[in-house]
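Marked as duplicate of an earlier ticket. Keeping the data here for the record.
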Amino acid sequence: MTKKAKWIWYPGDYEIALFNKCMAKRYERDVLITPFWRMDTHYVTVKFYGDFKLTKRNRITVKVDGTFNIFIEELGYIYDFDGVLDLPAGEYHMQILVNNVGKLPCVYVDGEEIKSSSETFRVTCQDNVFYPAADGKFDDIAVSPNSDVRHEEEVFPVAVKNTEKGVLYDFGKEISARLRLKGCKKGTKFECYYGESLEEVSDEAHCEQLDRFTALNETEETPINKAFRYLFVKADCPYKEINVLSETSEVKNKGFFESDDDTLNKIYEVSVHTLDLCKGDFFLDGAKRDRWAWSGDAYQSFLVNYYSFCDDETVKRTITALKGKEPIKTHINHIMDYTMYWILSLYDYLEYGGDEKFVSGVYESAKGYMDFLLQRRNEDGFLYYITGDWVFIDWAEMDNTGETSFEQILFVQTLRKFAEITRLLNKGDGAYYDETAQKLLDKTIEVFYKDGRFVHGRNNGVLQKKVTRYANMFAILFDLLDEKMTKSVVEKVLLNGDVQKITTPYMRFYEQAALSKIDSGYDIVSEMKDYWGGMLKCGATTFWEAFDPNEKGAEKYAMYGRPFGKSLCHAWGANPIYLIYNCILGIKPSSLGYKSFVCRPKLWMMPNFKCGCPIGNGMIYISYDGKAFDIRSDGGEGVVYVPEGFIAPKTAKKSGEGYVISDGENLVFTR
């Protein structure tokens, strides 16, 4: 046996225990704000079972987080245990019962012929249901899953300004960090204020984040990371040295993008930085304010991640933590749409990650959420607002009570994709979900599709006259409409400036993705430069939760009735990465786990560029100089579809209207 021993625990409990710690780190000024949805906990009593055969005497080390007992069927209970078992050759059946109320119950067993892992131990929470134990990256006996391991590096300000009131530090761009102050005078009351903008850090009464404490030691550290660009430390807080410790991610961006357009380059760079700051133990919504995992926000983060960091472990942690535990009584995050995004994220993870084992492990929970959704329909088969639910859709003025066309369109896609998941995992033929999806689509069109577009909703049998973009663009995004209906929706809604505009990157993303699916000559690059570039013109170093170019001065930072309530580093602002690679360059998996791919670039809207796009375990490298399109793959076989007017190399092998590119091959298409 050559594998290292690993810490093991009850499946899903590590993610839930870590999630609870993470979700309790949100503060508005010095007030703790915890999630308003149900937070589950780990099982406090877990029994671990290991059956093994020793061919010779083994000295076995056992370490446990929690109070415990060890029972070996062949020996009985182990008394006076000192951390080591000295066992002769033979067959053994070991049980380790662990209780830990405050932390994750977990164990580590290491001998020459027995090492704890998901392959060697099974667990139960004492309900007589047994699962393979869960494990992960923790293979050091001294570092259990309950350890608080920080990965930090010191960052330095680009400018320091001393004033009568204190010292202002400017770090040049947004960071997520905590402070270490050295040379403190004991008993001194410290006041440190943080700001994503200069206006915020200058407003002591209204800035969203601060630290106030009394120094008890010569060196003091703030316990929780804060997101900021500017830091202000008041003058009556004497210290000799300040270290700003920025949290760093172990997983780095794997792609790159460079072009002749400086604005486009900056949009890509800032998008990567934005997602990086919102990615830690989980994919969180924003770095400054909520710092919570919201399923709808995470769904977009996952999509962007597949084209940048490819951090599958954080995807799985986030999906598992959001899933929670049975019984299912509410929507994920209490939001109707977010339950559906969570189910859709499973299909995407299969498509991009190919991890059938993981998705199979959460399939029953997904089916539970599907049953929950199906049970909450009305007589027309529609999902509708029920007291206690939050029908979010987007931050915009609209009436989401009653039935909304958007929720039905999203539910159609959720049913379709869950049917596909069911088939892919050999859990059934998925026919019921397909049939339900088709009936729902037909009824949605019958009720909500009026005068060539979807109206927003219906309340007490009365249709709203209001038309919003949401259902219309998602119907196109999900390929639910025929050619005539698609053309009508595009003209009457998506390209109609009189329809209420979207002011969040969250939904602007879906709008651009929908428009990329139609052959209308719509220029996504120009839209990105206008909208995301508009934030850059306002001084953004990370992308925002919402952006309205009509807002001027400090009003552009206000949200939720607070002058600086808006998050200026929001994960859903990072989606230009996906727009560039998926919607413009047309790079997509054509089989599970990127075993094969397609590339269908829209070069007419692109400047000269070169890039590297991660695909599964490999990369696609592309360059374009206006005359030649050069593509190389080291991540599997694909099919390249180049625009009209390009000539393929004579050696290229045709595949329908495209050309096959093999692993390690380079193709150059010229005009």
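See parent ticket for discussion. The mean pLDDT is 96.
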